[in-house]
Design brief:
Number of strands: 13
Largest sheet: 7 strands, mixed
Helix content: 40-55%
Strand content: 5-15%
Radius of gyration: 25 Å
Strand order of the largest sheet: 3-9-8-7-6-4-5
Length: 479
Amino acid sequence: MLDRLKDLEAQSRLLDPGAEARAALWEAARGYAEGFLGALPEAPAFVEKDRPGAGLADFPIPEAGRPFPQVLSALGEHVDGVGANGASGRHLAFIPPSSLFTGALGDLLAALTNRYAAYFFAGPGAVRMENQVLGWLAREMGLPEGSSGNLAAGGSMAHLVGVCTAREAAGLKAADYPKACVYLSDQAHHCLVKALRVAGMGEALVREIPTDAYFRLRPEVLEAAIQADLRAGLRPWLLVPTAGTTNTGAVDPLEACADLAVRHGLWMHTDGAYGASFALTDLGKAALRGLERSDSLVLDPHKGLFAPLGLGALLTRHLEPLRRAHAFQADYLPSPPEDLEELSPSETTLEFSKHARALRLWLPLQVHGVAAFRAALEEKLLLARYAYERLQGMTGVDPGPAPQLSVLAFRFLPRAGDANAFNQALLQRLTAEGRVFLSGTKLNGAFHLRLAILAARTHKDQVDEALDRLQAAASELVG
């Protein structure tokens, strides 16, 4: 056995390279990263290939290791060289992701040091860091001191935490679900209904409230729906307004929603995954007035705060229902000192094997300061207004609704032929070309193009290039 252990130790130590081997790995990784960043200004925003990524099948997981440069080559060709380029400033589709260099360094350091961030006893510094970030976010959103929350893996997971918290606050049991009513707009994100289903509340009654000409929830229709449900003996429970819809960036009337929530005893859970971060700016605060009255809200730092993907936040002013939904105690977990007021993330989410994901936001905030983030967010808001003015001046373009935040939905109107088909063909042409990356959607049954301005590297030059390319491609299609 001792001989076998000696042999196994020699092999397993290959997993922990020494200083000289690390230096070679660092240098190769740095060269790859610098090559990627150096090419980024001219790199395509989208790369369309037949069977993208399928080449990985010719690069199977080996029994013996491969040379690191060979592995990086496969990564560059089959992963980083296909599909959407989430680091590009010309990525203007969906809700664009970003990845600040300092955020990536935070991710690297979090993975390297591998601090445990779910339980205070094991990772006191990592837990304090997450709570510091959550406290800062809550203050910026206007929530009262003492508000809490959780840093989740994204908006969908954060919404699941919020739904479970709202359920506990209302004391709902399984028998109550078929009568529990949920209210959201017809522009709400699909992950909300998905969160209800995953939480075991698929029987809850979801009311889609029609929106106005600017795609905002109509409070008078919401009021009528609540009254009708009350008369029917049902239980109005959850109101989910959106602070920045995916389709158009519309902001539901949050003040009116909060008034109705108070009047009828509803929990107001605001979906600000995309838009809530704009509350860091004066322009955003004005557009999001009423956000601070939410019982809970979701925002995604991997959207509006430019962090690497995998960082959503649930914030709530009500700690106890958050803990009731998620906290647990086991005999193998040491109890923290009774006088310690630091909340462990394991008490606020299903996650227990939780890494220090707060570092991907904490580090950029510390290095750059909040002022740089405020400036970048205001820039995106003004760029959307600038783009809208340019669209208004284009011949044969319906500019759509004026941007409320930083998303525009518009369409070209050809003199002949089907407008939907024309705009779809225009989008396909731009996607195949790959220089700029836009997406589309349907509004009132009509196909629209979308320009979503949020990526950290999107500035006026990138917006101008996208609009110029759109005009040129439209002219080419007309012939």
